[in-house]
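explain this chain.
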Amino acid sequence: MSNLHDTLHRVTQRVIANSADSRARYLELIKREADNQPDRNQVSCSNLAHAYAGAEEDQQALMAHRGPNIGIVTAYNDMLSAHQPYGRYPDRLKIYAREIGATAQVAGATPAMCDGVTQGETGMEMSLFSRDVIALSTGVALSHAMYDGALMLGICDKIVPGLLIGALRYGHLPAIFVPSGPMPSGISNKQKQATRQLYAEGKATRAELLASELGSYHSPGTCTFYGTANSNQMMMEMMGLHIPGAAFIQPGTKLRQALDREAVHRVAAIGMDGNDYRPIGHCVDEKAIINAAIGLLATGGSTNHAIHIPAMARAAGVQFDWNDLSELSSIIPLLAHVYPNGSGDVNHFHDAGGMGYVISELLGAGLAHEDILTVSESNLSRYGEEAGLDDDALIWREVGPSGDDTMLRPASDPFQPDGGMKLVEGNLGRACFKTSAVSKDRYTVEAPCRVFETQADVTAAFKAGELDRDVVVVVRFQGPRANGMPELHSLTPPLAVLQDRGYRVALVTDGRMSGASGKVPAAIHCTPEALGGGPLAKLRDGDVVRLCAETGALTTAADLDDREAAPDPVGQDGFGRELFAMFRTQADGAERGGSSMLAQAGL
């Protein structure tokens, strides 16, 4: 693009240069895999019989090798509202494949845990590492070498990154991600947030809180707040891995079905036997990774992606770090205010113009890479339009101006001039500060700290009135190697209450806060983590800590050099945590993606 912003061009060239060796090795790998892709006509008849025995009405087509065979990797379960619609998808997708002389088989399934269900519970300690398990499960699914392309059925937090990491290791195959869409809007987010804070103060009953939550999370479909799940869908659009405009179309609608049908037809068309070969390993390159980061910044998306983007990048041989993310943030304007950053949810966001509007604005301002290889017939420009139906036929049309300037604004008049993801660093390490949800008068907090090692201890101190003052709450030993880096989202209501009482409050942690991070200033993903003697392990109650988004400071006035680190906590077992001991002990730092699998693979 001739009008590409200078800083975007500079960051892109740096990422390309830093990735030169690893990307070259990756491209050689997938070329070798493509060359070695077995011709099923030459595969042992016994092998084929095992693969075709359960194919029922598709068996004859498979035996005749009439067309491409598509592998479906599904993260279906009916405990996750977002994934409940996937239960019926395989039957529909097989019908769509038969329409074009292709076949489809469920290649395998992956786990799909819900961070919303495990918030504040023991299960959250498995959450981050479920991404590695999902990637491994995807690898198992695709290991049968029976497929000419893949459809990835997944939406939520660790599931899409895990599916993508797994798919990229089979990067010679085309792959399209197929979302199922958000549930309809429930009660207002303002009402939900108010009830949560009342409950934190003891002014609402548990029954009132549950009724409020069920009013928000009420039916099949993705949760409607702009957390990690919906940020995943945004990223798939920015990287060109969806059928354009597929992200936020609700389940069960005609348009949703038309987009699903197009995904099947399209993945069959972009295999290596056709004239438009688009393997996922070529689609996901340095520019696509940078586009994902740009989308995150432009929409105020989930902080979890400061961990996921580097991990996904590594799987494609691309090196991307928080310096790149922070520098991009300095030029990418915040175009969207979606709850928890604003009042409206993803349905309101989509109705106001959604991803088509965001991408169109970014491309027009030279703030995204248009020239990427997407799974569609176009480059990223098609993703700057909106999908619709004309007599049941799928079409794309111009989005037009924002339908709600409290939700979406043009690049020329954004909510704020930067992307709201700040790298903070100093003698306490490096961390991420999501400024897009925080009032500017809270960008700097300097106060004595109170050090905790569990969320429960923070809650107890809050209830006892011990935090009724200006305070920096430090929650340590929450990193990948300590306990799997759980989200600490349950801390948001009590800390928000303290802030509303007029105190200057901040959170500093080596844990995560997610896309549900709220209005309290927070330095999260702090690295190096406390386990093993990181700086947070040397803090003591009363040490003055400074967190400043303006200057990028994460410091303490205390002299840490001569201090002994607090002892590492004893690893917990029970509730299956012992099964993840290998993942914890081998994990790398948050900035590298917090993965044991990628670390051990040398990626």
About this structure: The two ends are 31 Å apart (CA to CA). The chain has two domains: 6-36+67-184+219-397, 421-569. The chain has a mean pLDDT of 94. The CA atoms of residues 289 and 309 lie 7 Å apart.
